[in-house]
TrEMBL record:
Domain of life: Eukaryota
PANTHER family membership: UDP-N-ACETYLGLUCOSAMINE 1-CARBOXYVINYLTRANSFERASE
Protein name: 3-dehydroquinate dehydratase (3-dehydroquinase)
Pfam family, one: DHquinase_I
UniProt GO MF annotations: 3-dehydroquinate dehydratase activity
Bias kind Low complexity: ranges: 499-517
UniProt region (Disordered), positions on chain: 499-520
Amino acid sequence: MSGTASPPIAQHGLGSGPQRGDTRIVMIVYGPGQEKVVSVFAEVLGKPFQSRDSFGDVGPQDHDLVIGIPADRAKIGVALRDQAMVVVINAHCVQLGMPPDKDLSAHCDYEFLYTDTPFSRRDLARFTSHILGQLNHHETLMAKPRTYFISTTFPDVRAALPNLDILTVGADAVEIRVDLLKEPLEDGKFASVPSLSYVGEQVMLLRQRTELPIIFTTRCTRENGRFPMDNPQLYYDYLYRAIQWGVEYIDVELWLPEAIRKKLWEQRGNSRIMSAFHDFSGNFKWPSHYAEHIFRESRQYADIVKMIAIINDHNENFELEYFRSKVRSEYPGSPPLSAVNMGETGQFSRTLNRVFTPITHPLLPIIAAPGQMSAAEINQALALLGQLPKKNIYGIGSTPSRGVVLQAPFYEKCFNELGLPHHLSIVQRQPKNPACMEAWCNQRNFGGAYLNPPVSYNSLVGNSAFFASVNNGTGPLLTEAARVIGMVDTIVVRSDASSSASSAPTSVPSSPRPSKSTFGKPIVTVTGGLPPNTSLIFDNASWRGILSTLTRDLAPSAYFGRAAVVLASSSDDAACAIYALKALKVGKIYTVGFKTPPSLSRDIPIEPFNSLESLQRARTVGTTNGDENGGAGAPFVVVSAFGPEKSNIVGMLVRVFGSKGSGHKGKVFLDLADGTIPRKMDTGLVAEQSGFAAYDGADVTAFTTVEILRLLVGQNVPYSFVRYDQGWRQKHTLGVTTTPYQYHIYVRFSYRCSPPIAIH
Ligand SMILES: O=C1C[C@@](O)(C(=O)O)C[C@@H](O)[C@@H]1O
């Protein structure tokens, strides 16, 4: 980045990064024979653990520990504990029987329900990161232009699990309709209200299988649900327990007594409250004092206000739009409004709502409300209405880049699954001819691009009069990550009109026809340039892929203040890893193979390994605060961006910092090298043998793909869906020597209905 005038910074944040969150002492209540769960919590949080027999034995000196306490001992003092000092989690293995002890459930702050065979480490990491406020989904979601949630309507979520990946494509959250669950009874009938035990297990199963935030809904009989209305306390009991289970969103109906809504609001911890109001009377009017009164009441105890009504006339959809803009301007600072109309007449409003639009999927047994649409139907409707114009999106590679080609069918598949009209072209960049990039990006219908391998900001802008001239001559907007990392892997197009989706005039012809071309040349006829009201944002998604991989099985606090090693042949290759490690607040970074530029070394001690002594020093350094290493201790995480040809150096370092004989356990190794290229040494295996949990580039690629799709088309696809597709392709793909032509054939026949992909 040096040598260039500061480029403008894009304000399209993705929410905050990892936070320190709740710093109270974490205490784990465990059941008979389950003490090992305490050590797993401790590992996930990155702390040592100890056991105690009473709450009185815990004091401020235990701040750096996770404390385990047996359930029978915990029962004695849990109600009288010092709540300002400790946060207590009742960890209950459902295989020991359900429900957990009622007193413990009631008095502990949180409850983690788990199975020990299989044990879901990912679920535990996600639960702890959420309840302790280390990761915040809500901010990230609210920064998206549109969000969707899928309303699952299964009587038993087990039926949904095999299809969950495909069901949740396009969804930002999954709703569990607790009132629709059917708990079988011994007499062959079903419970009129599913018990908390049954519901707890259902939530656990769902959470073990999806990384998406969950919305917990107990819909009442008057609002199209099955929960009885005669006892509001029942709602409190279920909704409060959902907060204890670490559910991210709690749906609280507005008819519930204010005392209950207020209490839930005050007790919500890091969960978010969706206030819910449904009117099925057919008499509801958006332009009314009553509608405004409902909004005012809802917003008092809400992170999101949901208002849903049956309407009789299409014009009422426009009335809703007026209501939406009125509350936005007259009630500034209010929580976001999610409002739609029901029935076929109301479907139009479902295409216009931008905050948590409820969606269904053809694989669901029933729709959750009249008029619900799938994500694909909403996108198709938007496309027909001219609100989602067909765009040309590019996968830009460089010779001989297979990565960009390999990812293409997946993007195609997602466009297809989501009913997006866009056209994806795979093209090859010529490093000495920046004009080729201009030809793709300077088009009226340019919809963004992913670059694999990433390209440095300087070479993109320094060599292109077009890029330098965009945004009225100020150049592309840079996100903070792209600025610091200096490498761009995603080009996002943003219309400066109020809505990006509606910026293009409806008369814009659909995508220009493909012209005869060769790989490396523009494959579409350029029709006019980038419209004047359009900004280009240069972003970097790869660092988020690294961050998500590193926090899949560990809470961010596992990294706070600890030391990391980064190996790479150049600072460009290392930059994403360093940025991600800084976001994880590591205490120190050792480097091998490159010189760290000042932009990356700001705010963190960086030390190159330049001798065997320096290596040895880092290995033996103490783990206690105040040592000569700034308290960071011996390296906990090793990230290698070395190519496969240097695998033996990586293997050697991993052995040096491994646990054999050193007593350290549960370290992390991430290998960013392309796993399809043969290497001298299986570094992942060596790392595992040396006490590391090993992750590879495929995990990062999958998380990065999720991120890039979010940036380019604003839609969420589950990580597991990407991983599944990667696995499928590994089995079916034609090997590393695949020619582009063979690959073209594979792509053409792999995906039903998918338009052909342009590879020449
Ligand atoms: O609140 C809502 C919205 C909804 O009623 C709909 O209209 O799509 C569907 C419900 O499952 C959800 O809880």
